Every structure is written in structure tokens, then in C-alpha cells.
Amino acid sequence: MAARAAALAALLVALAAPALAGAQREEALSHSVATSLRRSVGEVNAPRLVFADPREGQAWLAEMSARLQKRIPDAWTRERLLTAIHYEASRAGLDPQLVLGLIQVESGFKKYAISSAGARGLMQVMPFWPRAIGTAEHNLFDLTTNLRYGCTILRHYLDIERGNLFRALGRYNGSLGRAEYPNLVLGAWQKQWAWTPPAGLNRTAGTR
């Protein structure tokens, strides 16, 4: 059974379309930073929508699901993915719509995507990250694991760049100093995923 599962996983990886990712660069981390990142990727909680008003959460999920339908036809799969994206982005202090734009550019929402540089999964995380801040058991093709790593890494780069999103995105893609990738992500965010809560509903709350 284990051999069959491994063979199926290998086949899925082999069939995965290449992704438009650069190469996040492995850099030395201070002990305090490594510890903080390790704690972040190690905390596993069941994904959930994080809204002060549940009606707003349902409105967001319905709207994002409709926009994602052409890429992911199955409604259950879409809603599971969107819930995980919203939770992991909110947990990292990121705008979920930004993360949707990044995933669109990085992998086209292909769970098993692999870039020419070896980056893996929805958010195209490089394989050195589990070695640096995780464990060998962390599978970057697992939906929630990939999102947790990707959001944690982007938050780390935002902190390094003191909130400068353009430069943080460059670091994420391994193209710091060049405009193409940040512009693609920011464009996808604004053109495809921007969202305003319906009138009369509360704004998104932070995670607890």
C-alpha cells in the first residue's frame, strides 16, 4: 500500500505543470528568527474562516469561490482551499486576497506544480525551507502545509523589508530588485481578487 501511494505521488508530481516561480534564496537565519519561523510552521490548527461576522465570511467565500470556479470546478475542493488560504494568510497577518494573487502567479492554483528551480506546490516553496525551519515529515505538496510555509515565509520577508511589499515579493520570488514579479502579483491581486465587504457587515477580524 505504501509503495502504491508513493508511486501515485511520483506520478502526480511528474504530470504537474511547470510553474512561474523564481528561486527563493536560502539565507542564514539568526537563532531567534529560525525559532520563531519554526514555531509558526509547527503550529497546526484546523483551517477556518476568520471573520468577526459569519455573514461576511460566507459572502467572501461565495464570491471567491465563484471567481475560482473556472480553475477548480469542484465546489468542495474550492471551498476547502479558500478556507485554508484565508486562515493561513490571516494567521500570518497577510491580506488573503494578496495570497490569492500570489498563488495565481506562482502556480496557477496547481497543487502539485514544480518550478524549474524546484519550488513546490501552490505557493511554490523551495525544498530547503523544511530543512531550515521544519521537519523532514513536512510535505510541501500538502495543501495546508504549503500554505502555512508560504504565508510564514512572505511574512518573514515583509518583516525584513519593514513592510515594503514590493521588495518582499521580490525576495519571495528570488528576483529582488526587478519589477516583473511584484507587478504580476500586485496586478493579479487588484484585478482578480480585490474584495470589499458588503455594506453593513463588519470588517475581517484577526485570528485568535
Automatic annotation (TrEMBL):
Domain Transglycosylase SLT: 85-178
Keywords: Signal
Segment forming the signal sequence: 1-21
Pfam family for this entry, one: SLT
UniProt cross-references to InterPro entries, sorted A to Z: Lysozyme-like_dom_sf, Transglycosylase_SLT_dom_1
Similarity remark: Belongs to the transglycosylase Slt family.
Name listed for the protein in its UniProt record: Lytic transglycosylase domain-containing protein
Species of origin: Crenobacter caeni
